[in-house]
Amino acid sequence: MVENKTNGHRTFSNFNEGLGKVLRFGANNDEVLNRLAWMRDELTPAMKAAIAQHGELELKPLMAQALHMGDEVHNRNAAATGLLIKRLLPALLACSLPQEHIQRVVGCHLSPVTITSSSICRWPPVKQ
């Protein structure tokens, strides 16, 4: 969930599934379903724990910095994804999660499109 504290608008988005065969493009084979189950069982609880440990994550300054690093925060997201990892990794490591879960979560976030859903989610409340 992304919340604009100024006007109270909230937007929601799922986690980005990455590249390749993904449900949002109509794929629904075992590979896709297994990834979605992993996202439900490991990724979501890990991110929830990391954000609870970290505290609120301010997306606007992260995206502003990413823009200065060459991202356009939609199709080119390598800097924004790296900044997200940099901010959340210490909190993720501080959570009492199995190390293999943390490794898979960090590996998932090495995809340059990780932050796409959150970045798109961020802008509608700003425009209204």
From TrEMBL:
InterPro entries reported for this sequence: AllG-like
Entry-linked Gene3D superfamilies: Enterococcus faecalis V583 domain
Tree of life domain: Bacteria
UniProt name for this protein: Uncharacterized protein
